[in-house]
Request: fold
Amino acid sequence: AVGERIINLPLDIGVNEYDIGLLGSHLVNTGNKPHDIDLVLRGVDNLNLVKERFNDLLNVIKGRDDHPEQYVKETVLRYEKKYNDEFNSFKEIISRRWPTIHVPGKFFGKLRFTYREDEVPVSELPLGKKVSDTSLKGKVVDAFRTNFMPRSFTFSSQGRDIKMFTYFWDFSYCVHEGDDVVVRGDYFPENQFIIICNPKEHGIRIES
Reply:
C-alpha cells in the first residue's frame, strides 16, 4: 500500500526508526477537516537530510508536493473564521508547506519536524516596551525555524533584522527566504521582536 511505502521512505534515506512518529487527526477522527496524516521526524539532521532528498522520495512513490484543490479551499475557509484575512495570505502560506506528500487518490499528508532535546533553542524573551498591533514590512532572510515550534523567522526591515515568533500551529512553513512580507503583531523595538499572538489582529501577508 502506498501509505506503508510512505512510512518507510524516511528509513530508506537513513532516518533512524526511533526518530519517526505519526501525527494526524485522520487516525483518530479528531480535529478539523480536511484530515491528513503527517510523519513526524525528530532532529535537525533529519530535516536537512529530507530537504536534500525530498524530490527523490516523491519520485519513488510517484508523488507530488502540491495540495488538493478541495483541501486548500476548505482550509482557507477554516482559517478565515479563525484569523483575520486582512492580515494574512492564506493560500500563499499553505503553498509554502514544502514537505507535502500528495499521491492523488491515495495519500495526502506532510512531514513535520521536532527538535531533539539538546537542539531546542535557548528561550528568547521580548524586552522593553510593547507596541501593540504593529505592521512591519520587510524581506525574509532566515526561515529555518518555521519548520519547528515555536514558528520563527527573521526578516530585514529598513536595515534592521527582526525576529518573528508565534505559537500558532497553522503558521508552519509559512514563508520562504526571499519572500517580501508584511508582519503584524506586538512589536518590541528594544530587541527587535514581533510576536503574533492575537488571531484577529495579527498575521503574515506575503507580497512576492
Q: What stands out?
A: The first helix runs from residue 2 to 12. The mean pLDDT is 91. The longest strand covers residues 131-142.
